[in-house]
Automatic annotation (TrEMBL), chain A:
<dbReference type="GO" id="GO:0005829">
    <property type="term" value="C:cytosol"/>
</dbReference>
<feature type="region of interest" description="Disordered">
    <location>
        <begin position="13"/>
        <end position="43"/>
    </location>
</feature>
<feature type="region of interest" description="Disordered">
    <location>
        <begin position="78"/>
        <end position="97"/>
    </location>
</feature>
<dbReference type="InterPro" id="IPR000649">
    <property type="entry name" value="IF-2B-related"/>
</dbReference>
<dbReference type="InterPro" id="IPR037171">
    <property type="entry name" value="NagB/RpiA_transferase-like"/>
</dbReference>
<dbReference type="GO" id="GO:0005085">
    <property type="term" value="F:guanyl-nucleotide exchange factor activity"/>
</dbReference>
<comment type="similarity">
    <text>Belongs to the eIF-2B alpha/beta/delta subunits family.</text>
</comment>
<keyword id="KW-0963">Cytoplasm</keyword>
<dbReference type="GO" id="GO:0005851">
    <property type="term" value="C:eukaryotic translation initiation factor 2B complex"/>
</dbReference>
From TrEMBL, chain B:
<feature type="compositionally biased region" description="Low complexity">
    <location>
        <begin position="184"/>
        <end position="224"/>
    </location>
</feature>
<feature type="compositionally biased region" description="Polar residues">
    <location>
        <begin position="132"/>
        <end position="142"/>
    </location>
</feature>
<dbReference type="GO" id="GO:0003743">
    <property type="term" value="F:translation initiation factor activity"/>
</dbReference>
<dbReference type="InterPro" id="IPR000649">
    <property type="entry name" value="IF-2B-related"/>
</dbReference>
<dbReference type="InterPro" id="IPR037171">
    <property type="entry name" value="NagB/RpiA_transferase-like"/>
</dbReference>
<keyword id="KW-0648">Protein biosynthesis</keyword>
<feature type="compositionally biased region" description="Polar residues">
    <location>
        <begin position="47"/>
        <end position="61"/>
    </location>
</feature>
<comment type="similarity">
    <text>Belongs to the eIF-2B alpha/beta/delta subunits family.</text>
</comment>
<protein>
    <recommendedName>
        <fullName>Translation initiation factor eIF2B subunit delta</fullName>
    </recommendedName>
</protein>
Length: 402, 636
């Protein structure tokens, strides 16, 4: 059982990654052309791809360098697909058929990702489903290996994104774990896999709606909700509440440095919801008026805590000390088999911070984009599996993965 | 079974104080020493008087733990009742003092203790003997003797009472005619009461006993005191409670024997192979646990080696190793037990006219009870035994003997490999990811898994520092330290008293566990809770490493209900340090109780993570593992 667990897989993958550089073959393959993964991962070396994705999706001002980078990357991928990505990403894909050479799971993923409303994990799930569809494999084992490679390459594409990793893992678990597969011939089994993959994609896609419906019970007339960061689930929840003619007001934090709060307040103003913008440091000042805190999550970890945009932890601490409930809206594909013990116990997602004035080089800047909120500061999690207490997360994860 | 208490009951009127003396009874009753209460109550009503306290002690449910002061309270009340009517110090003047003889009595009849204990299985120790009051007259009072000796004498005097003829003999020499007559009457009354109690007790449930006990007390109402009635009522009520409880007990036998349940203990004793001598001063709060004198049974057992027919030598050997402490640690004990069982199964042949499944299961049960006598089972062993018994029960009937034996042996091997050895490796794999360069890791005691983790992390080339915290009396941490230092790890060794000083430098705490209970409570070597609590206070993450086969579905909130008591001598003496002898000669003192707990329970609040073979889980997820995997993997 254990060797299939995600944390174990993660560990092994990490080991492999650390072992990768000395391996001459992979060096040979990836180093001569600027390999696709490399170029994608660091157009700017100190910014993680995770953050770029977020910036592209959520930032009010989409910086043009990102657009340029995107363009450059897509050109490069087309160039590299035959040489770089196939060698590194999906060798079986490239090896099996000539027409398949052009198919790359990353391309597929990126094309899905361009849809603004589609979550990263759902994009990954759809890309993986496309892998099955495009696969030339003739045996189940081959297909499974292919799928595994594709999901590994997706995960390696952006190791800092928790929902991407979790989405890939969950897809693998959900799709390949059917006992029915063993008794059928390959083609029907493959068909069944595609069916399941599409179903899973559909479920993930609908998750946001389900969460919005479930959380309506918690939003009452006249309440004040403090929101941190821009989360599409949270927006959906608030939108649904507004549509249900609930009277509530929202406090939005500014969300420095990418000003995600500004964007959320714009969206809410369009819905005629009374909104107040706060600077990030005014959370404790306004907490008296707040009835509940509602945040999204980048990832929900096994302890039941969440990893979310920087600042969530301190908001949770403040609200905990003032006895205000903290609700988290998160889709179940964000459940990850991670278990950070403290803030520094996970790979940091870095970002640039614009202070408006030049910072002397001697001054160090904390660049981490997210923090970990332990479960004891969270009240409830709104997920598409239901409204859960933090401790149930581990229960669900154990049932999913073991 | 508590000499201390009996002694007190009796010693009250016996010891006279000459010289400075305050006659105010309430004061005396408040201040503890009852032995300074000299007045003697009229003998005839007193047996019942004393007796009517016995039900209240008697009907204490074995599961309930009496608060420590309960009995002494009770006793004080008794003393008060007894003294207040007379309030005369008539006897104080004509004290007959023969201290040396008294000592003799004490020494000569100390073996009588056993008889005494055996005679009164049902009654509660505190106030059990119905003949107690007589002793006031038999024993000679001691003038200004040091408390220790007088207590001893008191204890002895009770024993004397149980051996009637002897006591009568000693009596003749010392007592006047009137006193003898009074004593005879008392004895008669006591006998009658005892008879009533005995017959009723044997015939029916304890409720009847209670009523039987209350009857004579009513008869003796003339001297009984104001709170007597309330006590009777209380005892009756308790008696009433007890009957359904007994029924319930029959339905679901308790997983572990409660050692303050006399009748069960007696029954168990009859069956026992290992004759453990019980500790002299049993600790009040832990009466429900076996408290034995350590280190006495080994030679005796070794001589029995060839006499014991049903015990397999391998099992016998393992049992002796448990007893002497050669094998310790949850995994080691479990593996040793299974290896022994494997041997036993290998040599097993079904007796004629018996089926393998039943006979082997019974055989295993007898082995297990032998092992329990040597040392109480750990929870891991309990789980392993459940597994084995389940496998035996599920053997197909059609299987031939040799096939059945080989499947069982394979099962045992599989259990050892998969549940213990392999899962240790998996835990190591997981735990190593939580060790980073520059970490300072703290561990307490010697856990085999933690040792493997540290060594593996060292092999991977991680740079970290280890703090091994240790505690008396076992000092197991030094063993671990030795192995770590040999491998070249940089270590600090300290004792548990210094844990709060060293904790601020620590980044992770790794702990082993004897078991993890389903509310997330970690049941581990005593001191673990303390370390975890300090770590929690310093906001250092506490990682508990425990194989999933040690999980148990029980819920435990404290470390009192289930625990194991070690050798009390171990804490009173320091090995190799002869000059530390402050407790010499005090160990057998009645008012000194030495408590050497083996385990404690760490609340789940202090545990950040449990690393198990199913991955890293929060303590709240233990019941999930128990629910999801016990059934599939362990039980079938």
């Amino acid at each position: 059982m254990w060797w299939r667990s995600a944390s174990f897989i993660l560990d092994r993958q990490q080991e492999q990654n650390t072992n990768l550089p000395p391996n001459p073959e992979s060096l040979l393959l990836s180093s001569p052309p600027p390999s696709m993964a490399d170029s994608l991962q660091n157009p700017k070396p100190d910014i993680s791809a995770y953050y770029q994705t977020r910036a592209a999706h959520h930032a009010v001002v989409t910086s043009d360098w990102l657009a340029q980078a995107q363009a450059a990357v897509s050109v490069q991928t087309n160039d590299d697909v035959s040489s770089g990505s196939d060698g590194r990403v999906a060798p079986t894909c490239g090896g099996t058929g000539g027409d398949n050479k052009t198919f790359s799971v990353i391309d597929e993923f990126n094309s899905w990702r361009k849809q603004p409303d589609l979550a990263e994990a759902v994009a990954a799930i759809r890309a993986l489903a496309a892998v099955i569809r495009a696969s030339q494999a003739t045996t189940m084992m081959e297909l499974e290996i292919e799928l595994k490679k594709a999901s590994d390459s997706l995960k390696a594409w952006d190791a800092t994104s928790i929902s991407l990793t979790a989405g890939c893992d969950l897809f693998m678990r959900y799709v390949t774990r059917t006992s029915a597969l063993e008794y059928e011939d390959f083609n029907s089994a493959r068909y069944r896999l595609i069916e399941r993959a599409e179903k899973f994609g559909e479920i993930s896609y609908k998750a946001r709606r389900i969460i919005a419906m479930l959380s309506q019970d918690f939003i009452f007339d006249g309440c004040t909700i403090l929101v941190h960061g821009f989360s599409r689930v949270v927006l959906e929840v608030l939108k649904t509440a507004a549509q249900n003619k609930k009277h509530f007001r929202v406090f939005c934090t500014e969300g420095r440095p990418d000003r995600t709060g500004l964007r959320l307040s714009n969206e809410l103003a369009k819905l005629d919801v009374p909104v107040k913008l706060l600077i990030d440091s005014a959370v404790a000042y306004t907490m008296d008026e707040v009835d509940m805190v509602l945040v999204g999550a980048d990832g929900v970890v096994e302890s039941g805590g969440i990893i979310n945009m920087m600042g969530t932890y301190q908001i949770a601490l403040v609200s905990h000390s003032m006895n205000k409930p903290v609700y988290v809206a998160a889709e179940s594909y964000k459940f990850a088999r991670l278990y950070p013990l403290d803030q520094k116990d996970m790979g940091p997602a870095l970002r640039t911070i614009d202070f408006g004035v030049p910072i002397p080089s001697k001054v160090e800047v904390e660049k981490s984009a997210r923090d970990y909120t332990p479960p004891q500061y969270l009240t409830l999690l709104f997920t598409d599996l239901g409204v859960l207490t933090p401790s149930v997360v581990s229960d669900e994860l154990i049932q999913l993965y073991l | 079974m508590d000499p201390r208490r009996t002694a007190r009951t009796v010693s009250g009127p016996k010891v006279r104080q000459v010289g400075f003396f305050t006659p105010a009874p309430p004061e005396r009753s408040i201040s503890d020493p009852p032995r300074f209460q000299d007045p003697i109550q009229p003998p005839s009503p007193s047996p019942t008087q004393v007796n009517d306290h016995s039900p209240s002690g008697n009907s204490l449910s074995p599961v309930m733990i009496p608060p420590a002061h309960h009995h002494s309270d009770n006793f004080l009340r008794t003393a008060l009742q007894v003294t207040s009517p007379t309030k005369a110090f008539s006897y104080s003047a004509k004290t007959v003092t023969i201290p040396p003889e008294n000592e003799d009595v004490a020494s000569s009849f100390s073996p009588g203790r056993k008889v005494f204990s055996a005679k009164s299985p049902s009654s509660f120790p505190g106030v059990k003997a119905s003949s107690v009051p007589a002793s006031e007259l038999t024993t000679v009072s001691v003038v200004n003797l040091p408390p220790g000796i007088s207590e001893k004498a008191g204890g002895a005097s009770v024993e004397v009472q149980n051996d009637r003829p002897v006591s009568a003999k000693t009596l003749k020499e010392k007592t006047s005619k009137a006193e003898r007559r009074a004593l005879q009457e008392a004895q008669r009354a006591a006998k009658a009461a005892a008879k009533a109690e005995g017959t009723k007790a044997s015939s029916a449930a304890s409720k009847v006993v209670t009523s039987a006990n209350t009857k004579p007390s009513k008869a003796a109402k003339s001297s009984s005191q104001k709170n007597d009635g309330s006590q009777v009522a209380a005892s009756e009520k308790k008696g009433g409670d007890r009957a359904p409880e007994k029924d319930r007990k029959k339905d679901a036998p308790h997983p572990r024997m409660q050692y303050d349940d006399k009748s069960r203990v007696e029954k168990a004793k009859k069956r026992a192979v290992v004759k453990q001598t019980e500790a002299r001063n049993r600790v009040e709060l832990f009466r429900h646990l076996p408290q034995y004198e350590h280190g006495t049974q080994l030679p005796d057992l070794e001589t029995k080696f060839f006499e014991l027919d049903p015990m397999h030598p391998a099992v016998y050997k393992v049992g002796l190793q448990y007893l002497s402490g050669d094998i310790r640690g949850g995994n080691a004990r479990c593996i040793a037990m299974f290896q022994a069982f494997k041997e036993a199964i290998k040599d097993y042949s079904t007796p004629p006219e018996k089926t393998l499944i039943r006979d082997l299961a019974a055989r295993i049960s007898s082995y297990v009870s032998f092992l329990i006598e040597c040392r109480p089972l750990s929870i891991s062993m309990g789980n392993a035994i459940k597994f084995l018994k389940n496998r035996i029960a599920k053997l197909p009937l059609a299987l031939s003997e040799s096939e059945a034996k080989s499947t069982l042996m394979l099962d045992i091997d599989r259990f050892i490999n998969e549940k213990i050895i392999l899962s240790e490796k998996v835990i190591v794999k997981h735990a190593v990811t939580k060790i980073q360069d520059g970490d300072v890791l703290l561990t307490y005691g010697a856990s085999s898994v933690v040792e493997m983790i540290l060594l593996h992390a060292h092999e991977l080339g991680k740079h970290f520092h280890v703090v091994v915290v240790d505690s008396r009396p076992k000092l197991e941490g030094q063993l671990l330290l030795r192995r770590l230092v040999r491998k070249g790890l940089s270590c600090t060794h300290t004792h548990v008293n210094a844990v709060s000083c060293i904790m601020q430098d620590v980044t992770r705490v790794f702990l082993g566990a004897s078991s993890v209970l389903s509310n997330g409570t970690v049941y581990s070597r005593v001191g673990t809770a303390c370390v975890a609590m300090v770590a929690h206070a310093f906001r250092v993450p506490v990682l508990v490493c425990c194989e999933a086969y040690k999980f148990h579905e029980r819920v435990q909130l404290d470390s009192i209900c289930f625990n194991e008591l070690g050798n009390p001598d171990a804490i009173s003496k320091v090995q190799g340090r002869e000059e530390i002898n402050y407790l010499d000669g005090l160990v057998n003192q009645e008012n000194l109780q030495l408590l050497n707990l083996i385990y404690d329970a760490t609340p789940s609040d202090y545990v950040s993570m449990i690393i198990t073979d199913y991955g890293m889980i929060p303590p709240t997820s233990v019941p999930v593992i128990v629910r999801e995997y016990r059934r599939d993997h362990l039980w079938s």
